[in-house]
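Here is an idea for our session: we take a single protein and study its fold together. Which protein we use is up to you, so please pick one and set it down. Once you have written the record down, we can walk along the chain together:
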Amino acid sequence: MRRIIVAGNWKMNKTRKETEDFFKALKPLVEGKDKVEMVIGVPFTNLETAVREAGNVKIAAQNMNPKESGAYTGEISPLMLKDLGVEYVILGHSERREYYKESNEFINEKVKSALSHDLKPILCFGETLEQREGNITEKVVEEQIREGLKDITKEQMANVVLAYEPVWAIGTGKTATSLQAQEVHAFIRNLLTDMFGKEVAENVTVQYGGSMKPENALELMSQTDIDGGLIGGAALDPSSFAKLVEAGIQAL
């Protein structure tokens, strides 16, 4: 049975003090609400604070270098994340792809490194507005998934989370309708069946990551193939995040 995972991605927001205050406010709001898995991706500078304060929420890093150590100025290795007690790592986010020109090949290297160090990758992928309007959404999504998961085994897929994020719906206020989102998620599930077999495909968590908020979360997460969300702005406020978690529970 695949899990619903409600994950927040804070991006480049919050200081350590703000992180501490967030979790102190959040903990009583989500106490005992473990029917869905809760994850929050915080900036590197806040990871130690978040791990200490998170309670029943799992902590994710927002990126990592695939190498264990070496002359990679400014980078963070999987060993450093493990040392801090991090469980998840967000990889291949559209902002990493666009601003820092990360390729599918490099993202795949990160996914393999994360799994080899017992970190759970949340692999992001999705199409731009131009690609959607050009009717190549499925082509783009398939390429990113196949190349991002190259050489990953069926057994390893038990620790991989996928996040479909239509780039045109991130931070724009636009959201795919629940039907549009479900259509792509169904395509993803069929693709995973082709790549890894039906049993694996049925058990992989595939999140939706395009401007999900408390107002639309239940409708989106109630779709057959949508297993939670990877949420940006709406995850920055404790009460908002708690409402997203509640929507995930209702969607079960």
Q: What stands out?
A: The mean pLDDT is 96. The radius of gyration is 17 Å.
